[in-house]
Structures are given as C-alpha cells and as structure tokens.
C-alpha cells in the first residue's frame, strides 16, 4: 500500500502543477478574453476531450488488464504494436471524417462558421495523442513514476510558454490555445516514439489480439463518451438556451472547482495499476475497501475547505465580470469528488472483466443530466446546469457500488462512505451561502480562515486515527 501512496504523491506533483498552471493562467485569460470568448474556449476544450476519448477506444484500460511488469518481451511487443496501429488507424479515420464536416460543426457549436479553422487545428492533435498514450502506459506499468511526472511537467511548461507568447506577443486570441496545443503534441509524439520504438514491430500486430483488447475496452467507450457528454452537453445547452455569456460564467466555476481534482487525479493515476497488482494477495478486498473509504473522507474534507474560500479564489484568479460564478463552485467541487468515486466504485466489475455496468450507469446518468439541464437551465441558467451535474454525477457511483457487488463482492460500509459525502457537502453549501460575497472582504476572510482551522483541529484526532488505522 505504501507504493500506492508513493506513486500518488509523485504523480500528484505534476498534476498539481498542471492544474494550478491552468488556474494561474486565469488572470491572463480573464484579461484577454471576453466572457463569451471564454465560453467558446470552454466548448472547444471539452469537445476535443470527448473526441479524444472516442478515438482512444479505451484501449489503455485493456492494456493494463492484459500486461504487467512481468510480461514477456514478445507479449509486450504484440500488445503495444496491436494497440498502436489499432488506435492510430481509428484516430486518422475520425480526423478525416470530422474535417469534412468542420463548417457544420462550427456552426452548431459556436453559431459561427468562421471558427471552423479553429476546430481543424484542434482536431489534428487526435492521432498524435496515440503515441503519448502508449508512452505513459509503458512508464506507469513499469512503475516509472518519475518519468511520467518529468514528462508531464516539461511539456506543460512548454505549452504555458507557447500560450503566453501567442497570446501576448502575437495576439492570436483563442487560436493561441490550439496552436500551442498542436506544437506541444507534436513534440510529445516525437519523444514518445523514441521511448516505445523498441516495443513496436509491425510483424507482431495481431488482429485476434486486437479483438481481445476491444472486447474488454469497447463497453467502456460508450461509458467514456457518456461521462464526457455529462461534462459537455450542459455547455451546448447553455449556449443554445441562454448564450455564450453563461457558458463563460459556468466554465470559470468549473476551472476554479477543478482545484479539488489535483489530489483526485493524482490518486487515480496510481490507483489502476496498483489494484491489479495486489489481486493475488489474500487480504486485497479489505485493502481496496479501506482505500476507498479513506479517499472519500479525505476528499470530502478537502472539498469543504476549498468551498469555504471560493470567493477568495475568484477574486485572486479572475476578473469582476466572472464573479457571478461563485455560488456554483461548491456544487461543482463535490461533483468532481463524485467523479472520483465513479472511478473507484466500478473496480469490482473491472476485476471481474464485466464492463457493461459502467456503460449502463453512465448512459442513464447522461439521460438524467440532459433532462435536468433542459428543465433547470431556462429558469436557473448556469446554476441549473451545476445542479444537474451534481445529481447526474451522484447516480453513477451509487449504481456501480451496488451492481459491482454481484460480480465481485467487496465489504463496503456504505453508511460511512455516504455519511462522509453528505456531511461535508451540506456544510459546504451552508457556509458558502452564509459567507457569499463577490468582493474580497478581509473580515470575512479572517472569519473563514479561523473557522477552517478550528474545524480542522476538531477533526484532526479522528482524521489521524482513521488514516493511521486504514493506511
């Protein structure tokens, strides 16, 4: 278990810096972009994330299930070569297809056909991501966490520098983001090819093995798409029903709330390879449950602390025009925690190689999300979108926790997991409502700081005993 938390810490360094870099770039974005332009950037970013999810075919998840650090060289070559050419072929096919309809897509997304070239530049990244995926998976499987972190940090710094140059010196506007992403993706692909070339041998490509990988991963594709639809369609609906202004307000709240994803993403990066590595241990079920309970306690407490200072974060990292996003932040923070629990709640099904429940849960959650968005956004605007996100996100882990028990029983204490979440979420909403203010107020800040310290001290004894007992 020490390896899990060691990996989490190392992966966390690069993830924290990466996420914080996005937050620290907010003042620049807030100054350069209007609220509506930030809305365009939001829609573009999530669209590319969805298409990237589709083009990957979730093959990385299958690879973690079929090879490990002890796999033979011939088996590793066969798997990586099959993965590479399978995903690369599909990515190129998808790129060509979307390019043919870029004008119509631009009109639908932004109500502006002139932004079709923006889409084209962004979509070019798709096939390049294949090499990056392979390289990172190789390092993760072989526990080369420092390689992953250094690679992430180096490419991140490059992209930040390019963003700044294109935005400030060349004044390319929104195009600055896609050009810097494309250049960074090209360099990452070159480095990745140099790392993984020893495992790529065309003669080892095996179509039957590809079918085996896809049999595991394909049920995860609709699930992945549904998850991204949950984070994407609300912005499309907002744009159609209320306009790009509300998209920009909503996106700022999402960016600020993403601070909680720093520890979550770091942990999840280490979680998958760790779980599969302990399956032969007699007490692995107990370990898995303890880790999930600990994760819930730590993340919900951190979510409360982040929610407490939401208005200060807005004041520090954005502009006055974005302050109306403050009430949305606590809701979206706990929505992010629910997404972290989604990754953990389906572990039983994944171990049993039963991935259809994941697809089912995300599909139903997407329907719930769309229904709530169309119902709430006309009257509540971006606030309605955030409520829809929270409710639909909550369905997935609840569904998977119970359904996965049919395939792989784990001794969960659901009252404990649910209790942690409900208690800290309720406290966050009450505190945010009481201290709601869009301008920085030193008195409020001091009161909140003292309150958070006192709360931390009150919980410290239980927190310490719980972590010590479980870890």
Question: What attributes does this structure have?
Answer:
single chain, 471 residues, 22 helices, globular, mainly alpha
Describe this structure in words.
This protein has 2 domains: 159 residues; 252 residues, no CATH class. With 471 residues, the chain is mostly helical. The longest helix has 29 residues. α1 packs parallel to α9 and α17 packs parallel to α20. Helix content is 82%, strand content 0%.
Which strand-content bin applies to the residues? Answer: under 5%
Q: Could you tell me how far the N terminus lies from the C terminus, measured between alpha carbons in angstroms?
A: 7 Å
**How many structural domains are formed by the residues?**
2
**What is the number of beta strands?**
0
* Radius of gyration from CA coordinates: 22 Å
Calculate the mean pLDDT score and round it: 80
Percent helix range = over 70%
Structural class given helices, strands, pairing?
A: mainly alpha
How would you describe the shape?
globular
Total number of helices: 22
Biggest β-sheet description: none
Unreliable spans are: none
Order of helices and strands: HHHHHHHHHHHHHHHHHHHHHH
Short description:
The chain is mainly alpha-helical and 471 residues long. The chain has 22 helices and no strands. The longest helix has 29 residues, at 442-470.
Topology of this structure?
Blueprint (H helix, E strand, L loop, with lengths): L1 H23 L1 H7 L2 H22 L2 H8 L6 H28 L1 H9 L5 H8 L1 H17 L3 H25 L5 H22 L10 H11 L2 H22 L2 H14 L3 H17 L6 H25 L1 H8 L11 H17 L1 H5 L4 H25 L1 H22 L10 H21 L7 H29 L1
Helix pairs in contact: 1-9, 1-14, 3-8, 3-12, 3-13, 4-5, 4-11, 5-8, 5-11, 6-7, 8-10, 9-10, 12-13, 12-19, 12-20, 13-17, 13-20, 14-17, 15-17, 15-21, 15-22, 17-20, 19-20
